[in-house]
Design brief:
Blueprint (H helix, E strand, L loop, with lengths): L1 H11 L6 H12 L2 H5 L6 H16 L9 E3 L7 H4 L8 E3 L2
Antiparallel strand pairs: 1-2
Length: about 100
């Protein structure tokens, strides 16, 4: 649940003030990297997460954590460093 993630995040990173807002900012900063590289402030994944968060706050309910993108295979080297593409579908989006 979202509240469990916030609690874990606050404990793990020793965040005393506004852990929920801190977590949301951290998650949004990780999303839509390709859009941000082109100069955009955010993109569709960030908008989705922000809308989901606003819905939680509006309804005052604890929602399940929404995982927007998960790495199925982690390769510490970039494709450029390796010289070849390791996996066709390294990342998966979850609706």
């Amino acid at each position: 649940m979202w509240s469990d993630l916030v609690k874990w995040y606050a404990e793990k990173y020793n965040i005393g003030q506004n852990p929920e807002k801190n977590l949301l900012k951290r998650l949004c900063n990780c999303l839509d990297v390709s859009f941000k590289a082109d100069g955009a402030i955010s993109g569709p994944r960030t908008w989705m997460l922000q809308a989901y968060y606003e819905l939680m706050k509006t309804t005052e309910k604890d929602f399940p954590v929404l995982l927007l993108q998960v790495y199925l295979y982690y390769a510490p080297q970039t494709q450029k460093e390796r010289g070849y593409k390791l996996f066709e579908h390294q990342k998966m989006d979850f609706p």
